[in-house]
Sequence to fold (136 residues):
Amino acid sequence: MIEDIEPGKVWEALQADPQAQLCDVRTDAEWNFVGIPDLQSLGREVVLIPWQVYPTMQRNGGFVEHLREAGMVSETPIYFLCRSGARSLAAAQAAQAAGFTRVYNVADGFEGPPDGQGHRGQVSGWKAEGLPWHQR
Fold:
């Protein structure tokens, strides 16, 4: 079972453990147009590996290989992030099935659920919690 971790707790974990990694599994279009978490104050960058490939949204067949190519090993604490927490959960499950033992899902993702007007990033998630992020 994959544990959901609130974004603020993920930020604390990233601050406390220099081995911990934040892996954003959204598409390149989302990274470019919505923004990405900013880990510069921690002296590192978010790992960008799409779970699905835009525009077809087919699953990235090389996802686990890309984790390894990014330097992650089975014991690396990896926090998976997507828009709202669904794709990141699937990515965490795939990583766990491939032998990664310390995988977590960022609850409510980068933007969280829509508010009453249908806008994301206001109710919960990385942006709504005021955690660092920037446009690419």
The chain has one domain: 3-131. The CA atoms of residues 8 and 130 lie 9 Å apart. The chain has a mean pLDDT of 96. The two ends are 33 Å apart (CA to CA).
